[in-house]
Amino acid sequence: MKVIAPTTFVAATHLVSSTATETYAAYNAGTTYAKDAFVDYGTHIYQSLVNSNTGNQPDISPTFWVLVGPDNTHAMFDDQISTATVSATPLTVVLATGLCNALALFGLVGSQVQVSITDGAGGPNIYSRTVSLDGTFIYDWYQYFFEPYLQIEELVLTDLPPYPNARMTVTLSGPSTVQVGQLVWGTQYELGDAEHGASVGIIDYSRKDTDEFGTTTFVERAFSKRMTARLMLDTAQIARVQQVLSRVRSKPSVWVGVPGDELFRPLTVYGFYRDFSIDIAYPTKSYCSLEIEGLV
Protein backbone atom coordinates (compact mmCIF):
# COMPACT_ATOMS: atom_id res chain seq x y z
CA MET A 1 0.00 0.00 0.00
CA LYS A 2 1.14 3.50 -0.80
CA VAL A 3 0.12 6.97 0.27
CA ILE A 4 0.70 10.02 -1.91
CA ALA A 5 1.38 13.05 0.26
CA PRO A 6 0.09 15.92 -1.90
CA THR A 7 1.91 19.10 -2.77
CA THR A 8 -0.08 22.07 -1.44
CA PHE A 9 -1.48 23.87 -4.48
CA VAL A 10 -0.59 27.54 -4.89
CA ALA A 11 -2.19 29.02 -8.00
CA ALA A 12 0.43 31.70 -8.61
CA THR A 13 3.28 29.20 -8.27
CA HIS A 14 1.98 25.98 -9.81
CA LEU A 15 -0.64 26.76 -12.46
CA VAL A 16 1.08 27.78 -15.69
CA SER A 17 -1.96 27.60 -17.99
CA SER A 18 -5.38 25.98 -18.41
CA THR A 19 -7.85 25.79 -21.27
CA ALA A 20 -10.79 25.82 -18.84
CA THR A 21 -13.06 28.84 -19.28
CA GLU A 22 -14.97 30.78 -16.64
CA THR A 23 -18.74 31.19 -16.33
CA TYR A 24 -18.62 34.60 -14.66
CA ALA A 25 -16.70 37.76 -15.49
CA ALA A 26 -13.81 38.91 -13.34
CA TYR A 27 -14.56 41.40 -10.58
CA ASN A 28 -14.15 45.06 -11.56
CA ALA A 29 -13.83 47.63 -8.77
CA GLY A 30 -15.47 50.30 -10.94
CA THR A 31 -18.58 48.24 -11.73
CA THR A 32 -21.78 48.54 -9.70
CA TYR A 33 -23.22 45.10 -9.00
CA ALA A 34 -26.82 44.24 -8.25
CA LYS A 35 -27.94 41.86 -5.51
CA ASP A 36 -27.29 38.19 -6.43
CA ALA A 37 -24.75 39.10 -9.12
CA PHE A 38 -21.81 36.70 -9.45
CA VAL A 39 -18.16 37.62 -10.02
CA ASP A 40 -14.87 35.80 -10.32
CA TYR A 41 -12.19 37.14 -7.99
CA GLY A 42 -8.81 35.52 -7.45
CA THR A 43 -9.58 31.82 -7.66
CA HIS A 44 -13.17 31.90 -6.35
CA ILE A 45 -16.73 32.87 -7.22
CA TYR A 46 -18.56 35.42 -5.04
CA GLN A 47 -22.23 36.45 -4.93
CA SER A 48 -23.37 39.97 -4.17
CA LEU A 49 -25.51 40.35 -1.04
CA VAL A 50 -26.77 43.87 -1.74
CA ASN A 51 -27.74 46.22 -4.54
CA SER A 52 -25.51 49.13 -5.59
CA ASN A 53 -22.43 47.13 -4.66
CA THR A 54 -19.44 49.20 -5.80
CA GLY A 55 -15.77 49.13 -4.85
CA ASN A 56 -16.06 46.40 -2.20
CA GLN A 57 -13.32 43.82 -2.74
CA PRO A 58 -15.06 40.43 -2.46
CA ASP A 59 -12.51 38.59 -0.32
CA ILE A 60 -12.45 41.27 2.41
CA SER A 61 -16.05 42.49 2.32
CA PRO A 62 -18.22 39.81 3.97
CA THR A 63 -21.21 42.14 4.38
CA PHE A 64 -21.28 42.76 0.61
CA TRP A 65 -20.19 39.41 -0.82
CA VAL A 66 -20.56 35.75 0.06
CA LEU A 67 -18.08 33.10 -1.06
CA VAL A 68 -19.78 30.57 -3.34
CA GLY A 69 -16.85 28.27 -4.15
CA PRO A 70 -13.87 27.84 -6.44
CA ASP A 71 -14.08 29.10 -9.99
CA ASN A 72 -14.05 26.63 -12.85
CA THR A 73 -10.30 26.77 -13.51
CA HIS A 74 -9.35 26.09 -9.91
CA ALA A 75 -12.15 23.68 -8.89
CA MET A 76 -9.89 20.69 -9.56
CA PHE A 77 -7.45 21.87 -6.89
CA ASP A 78 -9.82 22.57 -3.95
CA ASP A 79 -9.55 19.21 -2.08
CA GLN A 80 -13.12 18.23 -3.00
CA ILE A 81 -13.99 15.74 -5.75
CA SER A 82 -17.59 17.00 -6.07
CA THR A 83 -16.51 20.47 -7.25
CA ALA A 84 -15.16 19.77 -10.72
CA THR A 85 -13.48 21.70 -13.49
CA VAL A 86 -15.69 21.27 -16.56
CA SER A 87 -14.55 22.03 -20.09
CA ALA A 88 -15.19 21.37 -23.74
CA THR A 89 -12.80 18.68 -24.95
CA PRO A 90 -9.85 18.70 -24.70
CA LEU A 91 -8.99 20.14 -21.31
CA THR A 92 -5.28 20.87 -21.05
CA VAL A 93 -3.57 21.96 -17.83
CA VAL A 94 0.12 22.85 -17.56
CA LEU A 95 1.64 22.73 -14.08
CA ALA A 96 5.02 23.66 -12.64
CA THR A 97 4.97 20.77 -10.18
CA GLY A 98 8.56 20.79 -9.04
CA LEU A 99 9.88 17.62 -7.45
CA CYS A 100 7.21 14.89 -7.39
CA ASN A 101 6.89 11.23 -8.36
CA ALA A 102 3.15 10.55 -8.39
CA LEU A 103 -0.04 11.97 -9.92
CA ALA A 104 -3.69 11.21 -9.18
CA LEU A 105 -6.92 12.38 -10.81
CA PHE A 106 -10.43 11.82 -9.43
CA GLY A 107 -13.96 12.51 -10.62
CA LEU A 108 -12.98 12.03 -14.24
CA VAL A 109 -15.37 12.28 -17.18
CA GLY A 110 -13.70 11.61 -20.52
CA SER A 111 -12.18 8.89 -22.61
CA GLN A 112 -8.43 9.43 -22.41
CA VAL A 113 -5.76 11.11 -20.29
CA GLN A 114 -2.36 12.13 -21.64
CA VAL A 115 0.45 13.10 -19.28
CA SER A 116 3.80 14.48 -20.38
CA ILE A 117 6.64 16.01 -18.40
CA THR A 118 9.53 18.17 -19.53
CA ASP A 119 12.63 19.22 -17.65
CA GLY A 120 11.68 22.87 -17.23
CA ALA A 121 9.79 25.11 -19.63
CA GLY A 122 10.77 24.15 -23.15
CA GLY A 123 13.14 21.47 -21.90
CA PRO A 124 13.48 17.90 -23.17
CA ASN A 125 10.58 15.50 -22.71
CA ILE A 126 11.30 13.08 -19.87
CA TYR A 127 7.94 11.33 -19.51
CA SER A 128 4.94 10.58 -21.72
CA ARG A 129 1.98 8.32 -21.11
CA THR A 130 -1.53 7.91 -22.53
CA VAL A 131 -4.20 6.06 -20.53
CA SER A 132 -7.67 5.00 -21.69
CA LEU A 133 -10.57 5.65 -19.32
CA ASP A 134 -12.72 2.88 -20.75
CA GLY A 135 -13.39 0.45 -17.91
CA THR A 136 -16.10 -1.62 -19.60
CA PHE A 137 -16.13 -5.25 -18.47
CA ILE A 138 -16.38 -7.70 -21.40
CA TYR A 139 -16.79 -11.38 -20.50
CA ASP A 140 -18.83 -12.74 -23.40
CA TRP A 141 -20.12 -11.88 -26.89
CA TYR A 142 -23.35 -10.37 -25.57
CA GLN A 143 -21.42 -7.90 -23.43
CA TYR A 144 -19.09 -7.19 -26.36
CA PHE A 145 -22.03 -5.88 -28.38
CA PHE A 146 -24.40 -4.48 -25.77
CA GLU A 147 -22.55 -3.67 -22.54
CA PRO A 148 -22.76 0.10 -21.87
CA TYR A 149 -19.60 2.17 -21.59
CA LEU A 150 -18.15 2.20 -18.07
CA GLN A 151 -16.29 5.36 -17.12
CA ILE A 152 -13.07 5.01 -15.13
CA GLU A 153 -13.36 7.91 -12.70
CA GLU A 154 -9.90 7.84 -11.13
CA LEU A 155 -6.35 7.46 -12.33
CA VAL A 156 -3.14 7.10 -10.33
CA LEU A 157 0.35 7.19 -11.87
CA THR A 158 3.24 6.23 -9.61
CA ASP A 159 6.03 6.07 -12.20
CA LEU A 160 6.75 9.78 -12.65
CA PRO A 161 10.45 10.73 -12.77
CA PRO A 162 11.33 13.19 -9.98
CA TYR A 163 12.82 16.36 -11.49
CA PRO A 164 13.14 19.60 -9.48
CA ASN A 165 12.09 21.73 -12.48
CA ALA A 166 9.39 19.42 -13.80
CA ARG A 167 6.75 20.99 -16.07
CA MET A 168 3.74 18.67 -16.35
CA THR A 169 1.04 18.79 -19.04
CA VAL A 170 -2.19 16.89 -18.40
CA THR A 171 -4.71 16.59 -21.23
CA LEU A 172 -8.15 15.05 -20.76
CA SER A 173 -10.12 14.35 -23.94
CA GLY A 174 -13.50 12.84 -24.72
CA PRO A 175 -16.39 12.95 -27.16
CA SER A 176 -17.71 16.30 -25.90
CA THR A 177 -17.58 17.75 -22.38
CA VAL A 178 -14.91 16.52 -19.96
CA GLN A 179 -14.32 17.14 -16.27
CA VAL A 180 -11.83 16.63 -13.44
CA GLY A 181 -12.97 16.63 -9.83
CA GLN A 182 -9.52 16.64 -8.23
CA LEU A 183 -5.95 16.71 -9.50
CA VAL A 184 -3.23 15.82 -6.99
CA TRP A 185 0.49 15.43 -7.32
CA GLY A 186 3.14 14.80 -4.70
CA THR A 187 5.50 12.29 -3.13
CA GLN A 188 4.56 8.64 -2.69
CA TYR A 189 5.52 6.56 0.33
CA GLU A 190 5.41 2.79 0.69
CA LEU A 191 3.54 1.78 3.86
CA GLY A 192 3.47 -2.02 3.62
CA ASP A 193 1.71 -4.91 1.91
CA ALA A 194 -2.08 -4.89 2.16
CA GLU A 195 -3.38 -8.25 3.34
CA HIS A 196 -6.43 -10.11 2.09
CA GLY A 197 -9.44 -9.21 4.17
CA ALA A 198 -9.40 -5.47 3.38
CA SER A 199 -12.88 -3.97 3.09
CA VAL A 200 -14.24 -1.18 0.91
CA GLY A 201 -17.59 0.59 0.80
CA ILE A 202 -19.27 3.98 0.59
CA ILE A 203 -20.92 6.47 2.90
CA ASP A 204 -24.08 7.61 1.10
CA TYR A 205 -25.37 11.10 1.86
CA SER A 206 -28.59 10.63 -0.12
CA ARG A 207 -31.90 10.96 1.72
CA LYS A 208 -34.62 8.30 1.78
CA ASP A 209 -37.81 9.53 3.45
CA THR A 210 -41.01 7.52 3.94
CA ASP A 211 -44.22 9.45 4.60
CA GLU A 212 -47.25 8.36 6.68
CA PHE A 213 -48.72 6.53 3.68
CA GLY A 214 -45.64 4.41 3.16
CA THR A 215 -44.43 6.26 0.06
CA THR A 216 -40.67 6.53 -0.06
CA THR A 217 -38.97 9.40 -1.86
CA PHE A 218 -35.29 9.61 -2.70
CA VAL A 219 -33.04 12.64 -2.92
CA GLU A 220 -29.79 11.61 -4.56
CA ARG A 221 -26.71 13.23 -3.07
CA ALA A 222 -22.99 12.64 -3.12
CA PHE A 223 -21.18 9.74 -1.48
CA SER A 224 -17.69 9.16 -0.17
CA LYS A 225 -15.59 6.01 -0.26
CA ARG A 226 -14.24 4.24 2.80
CA MET A 227 -11.65 1.54 3.26
CA THR A 228 -10.26 -0.56 6.09
CA ALA A 229 -7.03 -2.48 5.60
CA ARG A 230 -4.32 -4.24 7.55
CA LEU A 231 -0.76 -3.98 6.28
CA MET A 232 2.26 -6.16 6.91
CA LEU A 233 5.57 -4.33 7.14
CA ASP A 234 9.09 -4.90 8.36
CA THR A 235 9.43 -4.10 12.04
CA ALA A 236 12.47 -2.02 11.14
CA GLN A 237 10.10 0.31 9.21
CA ILE A 238 7.58 1.09 11.96
CA ALA A 239 9.21 4.39 12.95
CA ARG A 240 9.26 5.56 9.32
CA VAL A 241 5.63 4.52 8.70
CA GLN A 242 4.47 6.25 11.88
CA GLN A 243 6.32 9.39 10.82
CA VAL A 244 4.72 9.35 7.34
CA LEU A 245 1.23 8.84 8.74
CA SER A 246 1.75 11.62 11.27
CA ARG A 247 2.84 13.93 8.45
CA VAL A 248 -0.38 13.43 6.44
CA ARG A 249 -2.75 13.47 9.43
CA SER A 250 -4.25 16.88 8.62
CA LYS A 251 -4.36 16.88 4.85
CA PRO A 252 -6.31 14.94 2.21
CA SER A 253 -4.05 12.33 0.65
CA VAL A 254 -4.24 9.55 -1.93
CA TRP A 255 -4.32 6.02 -0.53
CA VAL A 256 -3.48 3.25 -3.01
CA GLY A 257 -4.22 -0.22 -1.65
CA VAL A 258 -2.59 -2.28 -4.39
CA PRO A 259 -0.56 -0.06 -6.75
CA GLY A 260 -0.58 -0.95 -10.43
CA ASP A 261 -3.34 -3.59 -10.26
CA GLU A 262 -6.62 -2.53 -11.94
CA LEU A 263 -8.45 -5.39 -10.23
CA PHE A 264 -8.03 -3.60 -6.91
CA ARG A 265 -8.90 -0.08 -8.12
CA PRO A 266 -11.66 0.20 -5.45
CA LEU A 267 -8.86 0.23 -2.87
CA THR A 268 -7.79 3.67 -4.11
CA VAL A 269 -9.26 6.46 -1.98
CA TYR A 270 -8.75 10.22 -1.86
CA GLY A 271 -9.30 11.25 1.74
CA PHE A 272 -7.89 10.95 5.24
CA TYR A 273 -7.33 8.29 7.85
CA ARG A 274 -9.68 8.25 10.80
CA ASP A 275 -7.40 6.04 12.84
CA PHE A 276 -4.30 3.91 12.58
CA SER A 277 -2.49 1.53 14.91
CA ILE A 278 0.75 -0.40 14.63
CA ASP A 279 0.98 -3.87 16.16
CA ILE A 280 4.59 -4.94 16.75
CA ALA A 281 3.75 -8.60 16.35
CA TYR A 282 7.10 -10.28 15.66
CA PRO A 283 10.79 -9.41 15.80
CA THR A 284 10.96 -8.92 12.03
CA LYS A 285 7.33 -8.30 10.99
CA SER A 286 4.63 -5.96 12.27
CA TYR A 287 1.08 -4.96 11.32
CA CYS A 288 -0.50 -1.58 10.67
CA SER A 289 -4.29 -1.17 10.69
CA LEU A 290 -5.79 1.78 8.80
CA GLU A 291 -9.28 3.22 8.57
CA ILE A 292 -9.59 5.53 5.56
CA GLU A 293 -12.53 7.84 4.84
CA GLY A 294 -12.85 9.45 1.43
CA LEU A 295 -13.87 12.99 0.60
CA VAL A 296 -16.94 13.88 -1.41
Structural features, described:
There is one protein chain. By secondary structure, the protein is mostly beta strands. The chain has a domain at 22-71: Seminal Fluid Protein  PDC-109 (Domain B) (Ribbon), CATH 2.10.10. It is built from three helices and 22 strands. The chain has helices at residues 11-14, 141-146, 238-247, and strands at 2-6, 15-18, 38-41, 44-48, 65-70, 85-88, 91-96, 102-106, 112-119, 125-132, 154-157, 166-173, 177-180, 182-190, 193-194, 199-204, 207-210, 216-219, 223-234, 253-256, 268-279, 285-294. The strands form five sheets. Strands 1, 8, 11, 14, 15, 16, 19, 20, 21 and 22 form a ten-stranded antiparallel beta sheet that branches. A hairpin with a 5-residue loop joins β21 (268-279) and β22 (285-294). The longest helix is centred in the last third of the chain and has 10 residues, at 238-247. It is globular, with a radius of gyration of 22 Å. The mean pLDDT is 94.
What's a quick, concise take on this entry?
This protein has a domain at 22-71: Ribbon (Seminal Fluid Protein  PDC-109 (Domain B)), CATH 2.10.10. With 296 residues, it is mainly beta.
